[in-house]
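Subject: for your reference before the review

Hello V.,

The reviewers asked for a structural picture of the protein, and I figured it would be easier to keep everything in one thread rather than splitting it across files. Below is the amino acid sequence we used in the manuscript, unchanged from the supplementary table.
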Amino acid sequence: QVQLVESGGGLVQPGGSLRLSCVYSGFTLDYRGIGWFRQAPGKEREGVSCISSYSTYYADSVKGRFTISRDNRKNTVYLQMNNLKPEDTAVYYCRRTYGGSKWYSVGFGSWGQGTQVTVSS
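And here is what came back from the structure prediction:
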């Protein structure tokens, strides 16, 4: 069975930082990826970043500010978020995806509860 659990969200001021964690089980990243998505109130869910065994991808809106990484021995994918902006406020989800350039177009399994990120002064 595939399981993913998000954590690390919180309330921060603009310019602050957070590190999100996605602990997974039931699969490897050899031929699939783990993607981070977010959904803000009144907006559609969007792909933020993805990591596989061979590549990483970032949405233009977060490039240069966010960094995705993994620790295979801990079965964890991280999303380091720096210089946060109010427009980053959203619920963040991780999900098993394809690992190529169109990673956001195909997902596997159901969505979890996500973790809330709020950026406000």
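For the response letter, the relevant points are probably these. The chain has a mean pLDDT of 93. The first strand starts at residue 3 and ends at 7.

Happy to draft the paragraph if you're swamped.

O.
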